[in-house]
Design goal:
2 copies of one chain form a homodimer.
Chain A: H1 6-13, H2 17-24, H3 32-44, H4 51-58, E1 63-68, H5 74-90, E2 93-98, H6 103-113, E3 120-123, H7 133-140, E4 145-148, E5 159-162, H8 164-177, E6 183-187, H9 193-208, E7 218-220, H10 225-237, E8 244-247, H11 250-263, E9 272-276, H12 282-285, E10 290-293, H13 296-311, E11 322-325, E12 328-330
Parallel strand pairs in A: 1-2, 1-3, 3-4, 4-5, 5-11, 6-7, 6-8, 8-9, 9-10
Antiparallel strand pairs in A: 10-12
Helix pairs in contact in A: 1-2, 5-13, 6-7, 8-9, 10-11
The structure holds a DNA duplex.
Protein name (chains A, B): LacI family transcriptional regulator
Organism (chains A, B): Sediminibacterium roseum
Pfam families (chains A, B): LacI (PF00356), Peripla_BP_1 (PF00532)
Chain lengths: ~325, ~325
DNA sequence: CTGTTAGCGCTTTCAT
DNA sequence: ATGAAAGCGCTAACAG
């Protein structure tokens, strides 16, 4: 902890503590002359205000929290980048919490945040979240809360998402047009808004092209990578294996690549794969991969901007913003 | 901010504030009976302590800061994952700051942290850092500081790094053994410990195999992606272009892939590339890529563990830890 | 324009 | 075993 505080500064300057405080906050009550002296002395002694004293008194922390399932994930890393950019502009600090897809972690994190440690919370739900009690409880304490990407489906709240349904539809359509007759869909969890909607788009695309939907082809994966690999392997080992795969999240696409690699299945000749992915180098490393790329950085920026509007009460009364951004479909020569 | 505090709790229970406080901290001065009552009431009213009051009083924040150049970067994302894991175990909060490779940002961030907002700092320097004044200043306030990966070379301090010199040596040797006659080296900045050491390894490998070192083949890149692309393009457009490239950081490898893609240069037939990379899927997407992979997650864990040892004063007096982990060289069929 | 004063909510002696 | 009281460092009325 720093040992040089307002008291010390004021003694050094022969001023009262409050005058020094006001000078430092550039109050109109203080003469330009004094301000200069104070600033100079603060600089000289390398004065750094104690943030806790200030937060305690002013009842604001100049800090926001970001709660996400994981960080070693291109989407979330980019989103955080966008969030940090906005936060930095506003002079806010950013606390990051990882839930590792565990509802328990999410719950306890949110509970801790009710202590007033932050002025606002950005959150992307974990795959197991099936209750919103902790979230409404946080909301009730008056702390602004914005959901991004993985949002609750049964709660009125501000959200920033992408066009999941449309993207799922288009991705599937892409595979159909590329000649696929049997398309599997890898989903994370039916509880999750994103996969739920993406799968719905998949189903409707099949319907549109009069392809019958086979429930066994919609595979709900777990949070265990090993078991996901096995399930995918089993799927692709079948004689009548699918000729197309729609992976609703990047991680499952990577698992698919891995299995194909192991089984010597050629993409796209033997299996066409399309996935949500923010692996920006994927098509550089393998030019035949089609992806749906979310504007992750923009999602981060939009979410943070919305949150700050709420913190600064610049958003009206009980208006609830729902921002939807567009993903981009990057089609490669998978039809070749 | 929460409205339910110790005062309210104590009124509800008919106890004094201090007794309630002690009960919640499980003090031996309080009877088991009372503790139970207090805990129950705290639970019932969903009491969350005000972290600022506590921090102000106890002069500790239960928070650490992580200062890194960027987050949309596989190495740093994984490192943060490791850091968060340890921090979470210890019940600490994690503040993240991005410098975006700007020395100014780094300086002002470090300066802010002198206010006592955190109990310790983990930092990986930005490419332009050429002074350690801000760092020694932070150190002098008594806040424990651990450097990881990008560490200062002119300052006695605890560090967690990988075997950069050896890896650079081996990577270059790999290219030489694969038949390369003219090997270029893409460096980020000579100010940076990691690239400095990696380039040194490159130079010594050339020496060992009696290949003359051409200073024009050691290319110091900038923080501007566009201009890096142009430099690489120019390098590869030459009639006597190199037949091997050693990229000291992942970003430059990706730029290289990109240029090769554009110029229709085949990797590895026409150009062998090896790079530091934590793009775990690289070889999945293109099986001919060789990489040096750093144990990023472990680096994060080790750094955080070391920091906590320092915070808890479990590390002796003026002992300075220097932890070096090993990278792994993943050799692919680039010699074919 | 400057100073005095009363807390913010919590921890921690020190009494009882 | 419990309570009274001081104070962490800062801000914001309110006086002067």
């Amino acid at each position: 902890m720093p040992n040089i505080n307002l008291k010390r500064l004021s003694e050094e300057l022969g001023l009262s503590i409050s005058s020094v405080s006001k000078a430092l906050r550039d109050s109109y009550e203080i003469s330009a002359e004094t301000k200069k002296r104070v600033l100079a002395m603060a600089e000289k002694l390398n004065y750094q205000p104690n943030p806790f004293a200030s937060s305690l008194r002013r009842k604001k922390s100049i800090t926001i929290a970001v709660v996400i399932p994981e960080i070693a994930n291109n989407f979330f890393a980019l989103a955080i980048d966008g969030i940090q950019m906005v936060a930095q502009e506003k002079g806010y600090h950013v606390l990051t919490y990882l839930t590792h897809e565990s509802f328990q972690n999410e719950e306890s994190t949110i509970k801790h945040l009710q202590g007033g440690r932050v002025d606002g919370v950005l959150i992307s739900l974990c795959r197991d979240t099936d209750s919103t009690k902790h979230l409404t409880s946080l909301h009730e304490t008056g702390i602004p809360l914005v959901f991004f990407d993985r949002v609750p489906e049964t709660m009125e709240c501000p959200t920033v998402t992408t066009d999941d349904y449309e993207s799922g539809f288009k991705a599937t359509e892409h595979l159909i047009k590329a000649g696929c007759k049997k398309i599997a869909c890898l989903s994370l969890s039916s509880l999750l808004s994103i996969t739920h909607k993406r799968v719905h788009g998949y189903q409707d695309a099949l319907k549109k092209y009069n392809m019958k939907e086979d429930p066994k082809l919609i595979i709900e994966c777990t949070n265990n990578n090993q078991s996901n690999l096995e399930v995918i392997k089993k799927l692709l080992a079948k004689k009548d294996r699918p000729d197309g795969i729609f992976a609703t999240v990047e991680k499952l696409a990577i698992s698919t690549y891995y299995v194909c690699n192991e089984m010597k299945l050629k993409i796209p000749q033997q299996l066409k794969v399309i996935s949500f992915s923010n692996l920006r180098t994927a098509s550089l490393l393998n030019p035949s991969l089609s992806t749906i790329t979310q504007p992750a950085f923009e999602i981060g920026k939009e979410s943070a901007s919305l949150l700050f509007r709420m913190i600064e009460k610049k958003t009206f009364g009980n208006r609830i913003d729902k921002i939807v951004l567009k993903s981009s479909l990057i089609e490669r020569n998978s039809s070749r």
